[in-house]
Amino acid sequence: MMTHTLNLHWSEELIQFLEKETGLSFSTLTVQKLAGDASSRLYWRISAIRPSHSKKNWVLLETEPFLEPKDQFPYINIQTHLLQYQVHVPHIYAVAPSLGVLLVEDFGDNSLEKVTQKLSPKQYGKYYFLALDELFKIHFEASKPNPRCLAFGLAFDTEKLLWELNFMKEHLMKRHLHLTLSSQEEKTLQSSFLHLCKTLDAQPRYFTHRDYHSRNLMIQDEKICILDFQDARMGPCHYDLASLLKDSYVQLPKELQEELLKYYLFEKNKREGKQTDPKEFQKIFDWMCIQRNLKAMGTFGYLHVEKGKYNYLPYLKPTWNSVRENLEKFSEFKELYALLQKCFKELS
Q: Residues 137-151: pLDDT tens digits?
């Protein structure tokens, strides 16, 4: 019965772990490697046909062995915090720290991205509103200070935001596109990036998922279930909104984007008991989208030059189009826009 579509070395220790936790013989299990998006972690679907003919699935998350207390391992630590606020994250069934594996709940394959490919915007729009409902729990409930949660010791501060943009410069501009920048061009990039990041750093901080996009949001029983949350940190609420509404993988219609932003702002005002200036909120959202999308482009360049992954390159053009659309709105980014237009002309 066992079919393996993988090259993982199944040690006796790992086999014993799976047999103990599933209650089934390894010979009756089907193992399938899952696409992990841009993550360096590996994921495997463990499936079994029980004698009653009901199918049971688990996901085996493979990472580096960890020696620290289990509650300090990021995936476990962040999952524990989010569960306190009824955020739909996978249940953890078992952990083997010395093997670097976790056996967790399987949310299936029906991602938000896949739904947008099957349905019209009017039909899939409801799932984006559900995604915001989950985000409200994360931003307005899970942001309550918790000294045991690792995310509260990390932040999207100027240093981190600037690091992400310099990562893009190095891996996309210099290594993928083979660009050589003049000293003046370097100064333009750095001064513009610094201004952008300082402005974003000045915003109030919320608990942020960090990668809240269509490939990490699964639909199960008409609920949004959330993956890849282990890198959470504090930051502007606009960061997760930019990830969702200006997603590299799904280009939402502008009308739907506007409706979703209005819904978010309405809920924010209601929950916080104060009014947010909609124009200022829109401006910071647009600036956050510039940073977030440039960071994504850097990741795509890195995956190509370092990992030999070409499948992310088609997303460079639509992501650059999103950046360009926002840069055009602001006179303070005139020089940056002109420079990036020149650098990314082959993406236009």
A: 999 999 999 999 999
Q: What angle do CA 62, 63, 66 make, to 5 degrees?
A: 125
> Is 155's pLDDT higher than 80?
yes
Q: Find where tokens 């809920």 sit.
A: 267
Distances (CA, A) of 91 to 15, 59, 76, 211: 21, 10, 10, 19
The angle, 0 to 180 degrees and rounded to 10, between the axes of the packed helices 183-201 and 278-307 is: 130
- Give the list of residues 6+ apart from residue 229 with CB closer than 8 angstroms, or none: 75, 78, 79, 82, 89, 209, 210, 211, 216
pTM of the model as a whole: 0.93
On whether the CB atoms of residues 155 and 205 are closer than 8 A, the answer is yes
Place 41 in a pLDDT band, splitting at 50, 70 and 90: confident
Structural element, H or E, at residue 64: none
Among candidate residues 105, 137, 161, the one where a domain is terminated: 105
Structure tokens at 180: 């050589």
Angle at 163 between CA 196 and CA 169, to 5 degrees: 85
- Based on the domain organization, do 164 and 95 belong to the same domain? no
CATH code for the domain of 49:
3.30.200.20
Note the pLDDT tens digit of each residue in 290-316.
Answer: 999 999 999 999 999 999 999 999 999
- The gap between the terminal CA atoms of the chain, to the nearest Å, is 50
